[in-house]
Automatic annotation (TrEMBL):
<protein>
    <submittedName>
        <fullName>Deacetylase</fullName>
    </submittedName>
</protein>
<dbReference type="GO" id="GO:0040029">
    <property type="term" value="P:epigenetic regulation of gene expression"/>
</dbReference>
<dbReference type="InterPro" id="IPR023801">
    <property type="entry name" value="His_deacetylse_dom"/>
</dbReference>
<comment type="similarity">
    <text>Belongs to the histone deacetylase family.</text>
</comment>
<dbReference type="Pfam" id="PF00850">
    <property type="entry name" value="Hist_deacetyl"/>
</dbReference>
<feature type="domain" description="Histone deacetylase">
    <location>
        <begin position="20"/>
        <end position="304"/>
    </location>
</feature>
<dbReference type="InterPro" id="IPR023696">
    <property type="entry name" value="Ureohydrolase_dom_sf"/>
</dbReference>
<dbReference type="InterPro" id="IPR037138">
    <property type="entry name" value="His_deacetylse_dom_sf"/>
</dbReference>
<dbReference type="InterPro" id="IPR000286">
    <property type="entry name" value="HDACs"/>
</dbReference>
<dbReference type="GO" id="GO:0004407">
    <property type="term" value="F:histone deacetylase activity"/>
</dbReference>
Amino acid sequence: MMTAYISHKDCELHDMGAGHPECPRRLSAIRDYLMERQLWDVLLHVDAPKIEKIHLYRVHGREYVDGIFSQFPIKQTKTLGDDMVANAHTLNAALRSAGGVCKAVDMVMNGQAANAFCAVRPPGHHAEKNRAMGFCVFSNVAVAAAYAIHQYDLDRVAIVDFDVHHGNGTENILQYDERVLFCSSFQHPYYPHTVPDQNRSNIVHTPMHAGTSSDEFRDWVLQQWMNKLHQFNPQLLLISAGFDAHHSDPLADIYLDDRDYYWLTSELKRLAENCCEGRIVSSLEGGYHLDALARSVYQHIRVLSGL
Ligand SMILES: [Zn+2]
């Protein structure tokens, strides 16, 4: 079985404005590099469908979702929330981002793909139940977790979020759902200014000081995440794959490099093979240095695809 690569041109038309780091070029940089390294042609390419509202209502407030819809169509740009600017294509892009991750869940649950990477934007992990923020409109991975639990009657879905920013939106939505284990590493103190909390059995916070090295990060993953994930024994592993903890990234101060994403993906793939027949759905979050992003995603997908 192949690795699915789920995307859509609408995700490249959403644009937050000139010079914004969360830019359309992120997706084309990834595509160009995968082509250059001959990985593009061995992936199963799938268009991300628009999600139906019913699946958004499962995690977002009905008024919030309807309120987002009511602001479109727009001709120019519009602010949807704190650090979230929309253009004419943003609603379709956001619907395809959440829809793409749910499509990926269907494909891995139905045996149509071994695993999947969703090259989508806007990202999702900062969007809360009733709030767009941090470049995010809908909480793509939380929507997909709730979708998987509902659609496939799952009891245990693990989410690993290695973006350099805390996945406050995912946590805001799923924190009281014991069917979900959420492991999140993030620079601290830093946006979105989460206060680390180690008292929740289904949430693992791994705060990282500015300047955190590869070795420190790997130790914490092994000590804080892997045993917990094995014990939880997920039926599906979702990944909020942000690559902004890379040392080249302009938005943060953590010192990971391409090889760390290879290593972490290998650890997670082995876990998924032991627990859930390798079922992994990974979705792009951050990563703002275009070359480092493209190389890191390449390493991530190289492991997923087994090449
Ligand atoms: Zn981030």
